[in-house]
Design goal:
Protein name (chain B): Amicyanin
Signal peptide (chain B): 1-23
Oligomer: heterodimer
Domain EfeO-type cupredoxin-like (chain B): 12-103
CATH architecture of chain A: Up-down Bundle
Order of helices and strands of chain A: HHHHHH
Shape of chain A: elongated
Structural class of chain B: alpha+beta
Shape of chain B: globular
Keywords (chain B): Signal
Strand order of the largest sheet of chain B: 3-9-8-5-6
Structural class of chain A: mainly alpha
Radius of gyration of chain B: 18 Å
Organism (chain B): Bradyrhizobium lablabi
Distance between the termini of chain A: 15 Å
Helix content of chain B: 10-25%
Largest sheet of chain A: none
Chain lengths: 173, 105
């Protein structure tokens, strides 16, 4: 959990350093890409959990993640289409994807209750990191009002997920 | 004369409407992850219309277990209040969504 948390924070803080290096904040196309990628990565983790998890609360949580993150990402796609913005790949998105792939492989080796605990702990950490990035980086940097508003809705949804994950984690102990 | 003749009818009308204590229908909207109004007063037998304007599924789940309503995205679901009490409820999917329903007997 702590490894994943620090990794995610490191990835998300890259945004800050990259922005500093360029002397500019992330652009809306980059922000859209990061937010969308973060959603896709959580969907991938959830799909693995739906097949691997043994606890029914964990499985139900994973199904909630797929449903909500797909709904948010659909809104994001509709919005970028409407705004005629093409999401732009960037170092933060790349690092997030790489780390998520590593985590998925690591979780794949676990089984039963051990897997359930590790998945949920990672969900708590992942949502915490994404929420932190949304609050301190992505939302303040977004210039389009509709994009900002969608990110704010996303933040509320993901804060809900974090609390939900914390509740599921507490029940597993 | 006229008003005098109307009185019995009025009494019947009033009796018909007031005595069986018609149950009310109360709307609670879920919009952008917020229950509104956040505090609602109702009576046992009243119907709640849960109007979910979000593209996300939500639930209205009583902490004391008295009710658990699932509201699919962009759908309205109704439920009838069966038990009195001041009930805190939340969304199971997004526990940061909270509100209170006070149900009189």
């Amino acid at each position: 959990m702590f490894i994943r948390l620090s990794a995610a924070i490191a990835a998300l803080s890259l945004l800050g350093s990259a922005a500093l290096a360029q002397g500019a904040k992330p652009t809306d196309p980059q922000i859209a890409h990061i937010a969308y990628t973060a959603g896709v990565l959580d969907i991938n983790a959830a799909k693995q959990a739906i097949t691997k998890a043994s606890n029914k609360d964990v499985k139900a949580f994973a199904q909630d993640m797929v449903r909500d993150h797909e709904a948010v990402n659909k809104q994001a796609l509709d919005l970028v289409k409407k705004l005629k913005v093409t999401p732009e790949d960037n170092d933060t998105s790349k690092t997030l994807s790489k780390q998520a792939a590593d985590k998925l492989a690591e979780l794949n080796k676990l089984k039963g209750a051990e897997y359930d605990k590790a998945y949920v702990a990672n969900e708590v950490a992942y949502h915490k990191a994404v929420n932190g990035a949304l609050e301190t980086q992505l939302i303040p940097s977004a210039s389009n009002a509709e994009l900002k508003s969608l990110l704010q809705t996303g933040l509320k949804i993901f804060q809900g997920h974090q609390q939900h994950a914390e509740q599921v984690a507490a029940k597993l102990k | 004369m006229r008003s005098g003749r109307c009185l019995p009818f009025l009494a019947v009308l009033l009796g018909a409407t007031v005595l069986p204590a018609h149950a009310a229908t109360i709307q609670i909207t879920i919009d952008n992850l917020v229950f509104a109004p956040a505090e609602v007063t109702a009576k046992v037998g009243d119907t709640i219309e849960w109007i979910n304007k979000d593209v996300f599924a939500h639930t209205a789940t009583a902490r004391n277990g008295d009710f658990d309503v699932t509201t699919p995205p962009k759908k309205t679901v109704t439920s009838v209040l069966k038990k009195a009490g001041s009930v805190e409820y939340y969304c199971r999917y997004h526990p940061n969504m909270k509100a209170v329903l006070t149900i009189a007997p």
